[in-house]
Amino acid sequence: MSQGLNRIALGTLAFVLAGVWGLPFLYSVWTAFHPEKYSATFQWDAPITLMNFVEAWQAAPFGVYFVNTIILIVTILVANLVLCTLVAYAFVRYRFRWAGFLFGLVMVQLLISPEILIVENYLTLSRAGLTDTILGIALPYLTSAFGIFLLRQTFKVVPRSLDEAAQIEGAGAWRVLWTVYVPLARPVYLAYGLVSISFHWNNFLWPLIVTNSPEVRPVTVGLSVFATVESGVEWSLVNAATLMTTAPLIVTFLVFQRQFVANFMRAGIK
Amino acid sequence: MKLNRTSTLQAVMGAMLGAGVASVQAADLEFYFPVGVNAPAVATIEALTNAWAAKNPQHTVKAVYAGNYEETTTKALTAAQAGDPPQVAVLLAIDIFTLVEEDVIVPISDIATSAEDKAWMSSFYPSFMKDATFEGKTYAIPFQRSTPVFYYNKDAFREAGLDPDSPPKSWAEMIEVGKKLVVKDANGNVTRWGTRIPTLGLGGAWLFGGLVVSKGDVLSTDTGTEARFDTPAAKASLDFLLQLAAEGVMQPGGISWGDTPKAFLERQTASMWTSTGNLAFVSENAEFDWGVGFLPGGDGPGAPIGGGNFYIFKGTTDEERAAALDFIKFMTSPENAAVWAIATGYVAPRPDAWEMPEMKAYVQRLPQALVALEQLPHAEREFAVFQRAKVTQYLVDAIESVLAGSAEPAAALAAAQKKADEVLKEYR
C-alpha cells in the first residue's frame, strides 16, 4: 500500500519536474509559430505562422553556418576519440617513469577554464596563421583532459584477465585495445560523444573571437544576431532561430533517446 | 618598329609605375562592428561597406560582425594584443578610457590633420564629440549614438482625462500624472502601471545617469578619473525612484531593461523610459496611439548619451590609417548617416544628415524621431571612467540594493563612492 503511494508521489514529482523543465521549451515553440504580438498573450486561436522562421533564416547565412558547425564538431569528436583513447590506454596499460605526475598534469587542465586562455590561444593561432579557419576553432579542443580521465577510469576496471587472455591468443597491443578495451567502453564513448557534441554545438565566444568570415563561422554566431538588447528583444524571432539551430540536436536525441539514456545510466554520468 | 617597341616599353613601365603607386595606396581593411538593434542592421552595414569598396577599388574592406558591444570589445582587444588588430572598429563611446589604457588606438586628430579634415571633425554635434576626446585629442568619430526618451501611450492619457500632447516634464508631474494612469482590477491588483524606468543592470545605470543630469550634476567627468556617486543629485535621483514605487506609480523592486518595451506594447505600463533605439520596434508593433517626449527631469530636462563610435587601431600602416579615415568619412557622410539612422533608430550624429531628403521624409512619417535630437543639448555623456566595467558595477549594485529595500540611498551611494575612489585613485 505504502509502496503504491510512494509510486504515485514519485510519479507526480517526475511530472512536475518534467513540466518545469519543459515549459521554457513549450514557450519557445509557441512564440516561434505565432506573430510577435502573441508572444505573451496565449490565445488558443492565435494565427499560426511560419514567417518567423523565414525571417530568421534570411537574417544570417544559416546554411553555411550549419555546415561549418557540423565540420567543426565532427573534427573535434574524431580527434578526441582517437587521442583520448590512446592516452588513456597508455596510462592504464604501461608502467613508465613520471606516469603519475603526467596524469596529474592532465588533471590540472580540468581546473583551467578555457576563457582564461583566449588571448594566449589567439596568439598561438595567429602565429601559425590559423585564425579565421575551422581548424583554428577546433585546435584548442582536439584533445580533452575530461575525455582522458573518463576513458582511463573505464579502462582501469576492465578485468586484467581479459587483457591477458587476448595476449595469450597472440594479440598485440593495438589488437588488445581494439578488441578488448574499446568494445567494453562503448557506453562511455556514446555518453562522451553526446556531451562533446552539445558543448561544441553551443560554444560561442571562442569561435566569435577567432573567426572573421561568415564562411567559417558556426550557428551560434548566427544566432547572436538576434540578441538585440538595446532595441527590445523580439521573442518570436529569437525563438524561431533558436529552435532552428537546436533542431538537429533535438532530433538526434529523440532518435537515439533510448540508447543515450541506457548508456548514461551504465556509464555512471548523470 | 623601333618606336613601337619603345612606346610598348613605356606603356609597360607606366603600367608598372601605376601599379606601384596603387599598391602603395592600397589597403586591406578589417572592420569590426557590433549589433545592438534589429537584425537587418547587419545587412545595412554590409551594404554601406560594399558601397565604399566599390568607390575605392584599390582598397578592400571586410565587415566583421563581432557580437554585442562587450564581445566586440573583447574580440578587438584580443586581436590587438596578439598583434593582429582590426584597422577600424565601432566600439562603445565609454570604452575610450579602456582603449587608451590598453594603448591600442590612435588619436584620429593625429591622422586627420588637413583643414578639410578639421572642418569634417567639427561637423558633428558637440554633445557627441565630447566623449570622443581625451586630453585634447579626438580619438573617435560618432556613429551609432542613442539617448533615452519618454515613450507614452496617448490612448491611456485620453482615458485618464489627460492631454495626450503634453507629457509630464518634471518629476513632480510624473508622479501626479502617473497616479492617474494606474489601472487596477476588481481585486485591487494593478493591471497597468503609470510608468516604467528600467533600474537593473547597465541599462538601469545608464538611465540613472540621466536622472542625475536633470538635477544639474554628472556621474563622471571628462578626465575619466572621477566618479561622482555620493552627491545630493544622485541621492535625489534614488529618492525619486523609491518615491515612484511608494506612490504606486511604478512597480516596486528592480525593473529589467529587456522586458520594458514589451510591457509598454502590451499596455502593462502607460509610459516607459528607454532608448531611441526602440523607435522602429515600437512603431511597428504598437496597436495604440503613442507619443515621445523629453525625459521628465528633476530641475530641468536631462538625459544620458550612449552608443558607439568609430576607432582606428594602432599596429597599422600609414596607408591603412589613411584608408580607414576615408572609410569613416564615408560611413558618417550625411547621406549614409541618414541611411543608418533610419534603418536603426540611432540619432544621426550631424546636423546636415537631418537635412537629407530621405531623413526629412522619415521625420515626417515618424515625428517622434525628432524628440531625441531636440533633447540633445540637455544630454551629458554616459558614465565613463578608467576600469569602467568594475566601477560601473559598484553603481549598479548600489541602485539595485536600494530598490530591493536592502540598503538606504545615502549609505549605499557612500559605499559605492568609497570603492570607486579606491580603484580610480591610481589613475589620478
Provide the CATH superfamily of the largest domain in chain B: Periplasmic binding protein-like II
Please name the CATH topology of chain A.
Answer: MetI-like fold
The separation of the N and C termini of chain A measures 31 Å
The multimeric state of the shown protein is heterodimer
**Low-confidence runs of chain B (pLDDT<50, min 5 residues)?**
1-24
Helicity range of chain B: 40-55%
Total domains of chain B, how many?
2
Protein structure class of chain A: mainly alpha
Tell me the count of domains of chain A.
1
Q: Under the CATH scheme, which class of chain A?
A: Mainly Alpha
Strand tally of chain B is: 14
Q: What fraction strand of chain B?
A: 5-15%
Shape of chain B: globular
Description:
The complex is a heterodimer of chains A (270) and B (428). Chain A has 270 residues and is mostly helical. Chain A is 71% helix and 0% strand. Chain A has a single domain (54-267), classed as MetI-like (MetI-like fold, Orthogonal Bundle), CATH 1.10.3720.10. Chain A has 13 helices and no strands. The radius of gyration of chain A is 23 Å and the shape is globular. The two termini of chain A are 31 Å apart. In chain B, 48% of the residues lie in helices and 15% in strands. In chain B, helix 2 runs antiparallel to helix 15, helix 10 (201-214) crosses helix 11 (232-246) and helix 10 packs across helix 18. In chain B, strands 1, 2, 3, 4, 7, 13 and 14 form a seven-stranded mixed beta sheet that branches. Chain B has a three-stranded antiparallel beta sheet with strand order 11-8-12. Chain B has a two-stranded antiparallel ribbon with strand order 5-6. At the A-B interface, helix 5 and helix 11 of A face strand 2, helix 3, helix 12 and helix 13 of B.
